[in-house]
């Protein structure tokens, strides 16, 4: 980019503005894959945290030679840049899943980064100390301790009024009334659903929002009674409302039934949910666990609903195993089907 000769402060400011625009344009072209990343871009625009040079990107299938390059960790991305080609890999920090450091060998220390979108990168780093420092940096970027450390919050706005209320800014941007209205709650003439603030201050359930959507026919006492009958007080509440036919999806935790316990308030709440849809009187209850697991939970005072105590209830188990088995299954699936050449 050619720049004119300067002779005044105004011209200097104009040149600075053009340089800044040019820098961000190059950064955009880099992210979009139109232009290679330049080292000074990392320092000026990307919030560079750490750089490790002479790193080898290992082909996990062993069909391609390793690629020598450098790893750049910024406040928003982990970037691998090849030395002898235009190859670059950008991974947003929020997609970092696990970081695993291997055993030191004569060639160096292997480092595996498994991402939440199923990409797996394996690097070979010459110096063990650099590898350990990189592990710590990646873990901090992928698992921030405070929400304010997340890039979306760290990249603060310049408005003084907003900055003064930084602690509240993120929460205030979400309005439950607006969200429920978007789904159609409160717009129908019969108004089958209502927004309740009985959980204000997370008084009853600390893992639910303060504002909940429940059938209009229910009372506060009914809600409190259902809370006491559900694990972690997670009573049935609206999750999704389909405006065209008034169908809805509500979620809840397992009931504390044991072998024979029941709760009148919980039964009343479930019946009220069924009545919110005038075109269907049947309530379908889906339990994602295997039935055997649910039976075992009965011995711990938990379990599942007894259909004889609920009106027009149909029960179905989805037989999804626990999280550990599901993760193992997914890992094996990925190992079998992912073609590393795509990355």
Question: How would you summarize this macromolecular structure in one to three sentences?
Answer:
With 343 residues, the protein is an alpha+beta fold.
Shape label:
elongated
What Rg do the Cα atoms give?
28 Å
Provide the β-strand percentage band: 15-25%
Order of helices and strands: HHEEEEEEEHHHHHEEHEEHEHEH
Structural class: alpha+beta
The percentage helix is 25-40%
> How many domains?
3
| Poorly predicted residue ranges | 1-7
* Biggest sheet, spatial arrangement of strands: 4-3-2-1-7-6-5
**Mean model confidence by pLDDT:** 83
Distance between the termini: 33 Å
User: How many DSSP H or I helices?
Assistant: 11
Largest sheet properties: 7 strands, antiparallel
* Count of DSSP strands: 13
Describe the structure.
By secondary structure, this protein is α+β, with helices and mostly antiparallel strands. It has three domains: 1-35; 36-142, PH-domain like (Roll); 176-323, no CATH class. The protein contains eleven helices and 13 strands. It has a seven-stranded antiparallel β-sheet. Strand 5 and strand 6 (109-115) form a beta hairpin. This is Myotubularin phosphatase domain-containing protein. InterPro entries: Myotubularin, Myotubularin-like_Pase_dom, PH-GRAM_MTMR6-9, PH-like_dom_sf, Prot-tyrosine_phosphatase-like. Pfam families: Myotub-related, PH-GRAM_MTMR6-like. GO terms for molecular function: phosphatidylinositol-3,5-bisphosphate phosphatase activity; phosphatidylinositol-3-phosphate phosphatase activity.
């Amino acid at each position: 980019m050619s720049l004119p000769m300067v002779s005044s402060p105004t011209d200097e400011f104009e040149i600075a503005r053009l340089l800044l625009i040019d820098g961000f344009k190059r950064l955009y072209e880099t992210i979009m894959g139109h232009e290679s990343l330049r080292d000074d871009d990392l320092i000026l625009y990307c919030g560079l945290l750490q750089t490790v040079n002479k790193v080898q990107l290992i082909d996990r299938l062993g069909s391609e030679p390793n690629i020598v390059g450098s790893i750049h960790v910024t406040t928003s991305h982990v970037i691998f840049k090849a030395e002898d080609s235009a190859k670059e890999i950008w991974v947003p920090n929020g997609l970092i899943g696990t970081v695993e450091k291997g055993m030191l060998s004569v060639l160096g220390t292997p480092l595996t980064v498994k991402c939440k979108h199923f990409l797996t990168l394996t690097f070979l780093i010459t110096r063990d100390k650099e590898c350990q420092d990189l592990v710590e940096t990646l873990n901090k970027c992928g698992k921030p301790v405070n929400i304010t450390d997340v890039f979306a919050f760290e990249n603060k706005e310049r408005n003084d009024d907003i900055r003064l209320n930084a602690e509240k800014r993120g929460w205030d941007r979400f309005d439950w009334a607006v969200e429920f209205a978007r789904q159609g709650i409160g717009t129908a003439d019969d108004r089958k659903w209502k927004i309740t603030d009985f959980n204000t201050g997370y008084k009853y359930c600390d893992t639910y929002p303060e504002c909940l959507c429940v059938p209009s026919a229910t009372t506060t006492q009914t809600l409190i009674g259902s809370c006491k009958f559900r694990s972690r007080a997670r009573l049935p509440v609206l999750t999704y409302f389909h405006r065209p036919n008034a169908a809805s999806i509500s979620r809840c935790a397992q009931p504390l039934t044991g072998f024979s316990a029941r709760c009148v308030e919980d039964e009343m709440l479930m019946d009220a949910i069924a009545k919110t849809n005038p075109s269907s009187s049947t309530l379908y209850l889906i339990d994602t666990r295997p039935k055997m697991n649910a039976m075992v939970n009965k011995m711990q005072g938990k379990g599942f609903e007894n259909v004889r105590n609920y009106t027009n209830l149909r029960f179905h188990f989805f037989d999804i195993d626990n999280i550990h088995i599901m993760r193992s299954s997914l890992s094996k699936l990925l190992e079998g089907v992912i073609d590393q050449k795509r990355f």
